[in-house]
Design a protein that fits this description.
Length: 282
């Protein structure tokens, strides 16, 4: 029997929450007409995050130009870039009194700058209303629009986040339209050409080995990544990439130690962590 058909271990069971703050955030998201990756990617932590008054905003539509085997965001024809989106995201950020704001997007290989200009406009609008807020951008790789990364650097977010997701040997299965070395070099380019903190995230349980993870940690450290999140992969459906292994919390502690030994300054390694989960605390 495959792991996907087995019951999840106790440490992966999520306690449902739905307090006043959760309902308030949910309603505000609807009223402002913004997208969140919490909903689009069916994140297991969305109830907790909404209850804490936080969310990760998803820009540039809800349809992705890529079709990664692990992701629950729908692929499809990209939507028209909404020029009012930056103002609405800044508005809801002020309404929620956010101190740490995470902005991510679907991959837009159809745009000449990969969507970087929209990221920059969101940052500009947020800075107008919340000049003291920490802004974290979780971007695609700009593989087909490398000029876009300079636009990201020029808009001066506090944190640049780009997820490596998995070890190099599994890219053809997990991220077939991406390139491991390109993603690493993207992170290094930002760190070497700005004062922006760089961050990445990976998921485990898709077939990697500990030895391969050690290489990945060394690669991230060598490319100047300061923050790393490590979480358990959970298949969104039976149609997605199958879970190969459920890591025990003790194993996550060991991975944290290995990553820190590689030279990564801040490592958060627990089963249900996601790249933007509790980003304000990290």
């Amino acid at each position: 029997m495959s792991l996907q058909k087995q019951r999840k271990p106790d440490w992966l069971k999520i306690k449902a929450v739905g307090g006043h703050k959760f309902k308030e955030v949910n309603q505000l998201i609807k009223s402002y007409g913004v997208e969140t990756v919490c909903h689009a990617a069916n994140c297991p932590n969305r109830s907790e995050c909404f209850d804490r008054g936080t969310a990760t905003f998803l820009i540039l539509g809800s349809k992705c130009t890529r079709n990664c085997s692990f992701c629950d965001i729908e692929p499809g024809l990209p939507q028209i870039v909404d020029k009012t989106e930056p103002i609405r995201i800044a508005g809801i950020s002020r309404k929620l009194k956010l101190k740490h704001i995470v902005i991510t997007s679907v991959t837009r290989d159809d745009l000449t700058d990969g969507g970087a200009s929209q990221f920059a406009q969101v940052v500009a609008e947020i800075k107008k209303l919340l000049p003291k807020a920490v802004i974290e951008l979780l971007t695609p790789d700009f593989l087909h629009a490398p000029s876009g990364i300079q636009i990201i650097i020029d808009c001066k977010p506090n944190i640049f986040n780009h997820n490596l997701e998995t070890v190099e040997s599994l890219y053809s299965i997990v991220r077939p339209q991406a390139n491991y070395k390109f993603s690493l070099n993207l992170l290094k380019f930002v760190s070497e050409n700005s004062a922006i903190t760089t961050k990445s995230g990976i998921m485990v349980g898709v077939g990697e080995t500990v030895e391969q993870l050690k290489v990945l940690f060394d690669d991230l450290s060598a490319h100047n990544v300061s923050i790393l999140t490590i979480g358990q992969y959970l298949a969104p459906s039976a149609k997605h990439l199958e879970v190969k292994k459920y890591y025990h919390p003790d194993e996550f502690l060991k991975l944290k130690q290995l990553a820190e030994e590689s030279g990564i300054s801040k490592v958060v390694s627990v089963p249900l962590v996601r790249s933007s989960y509790r980003a304000d605390q990290i």
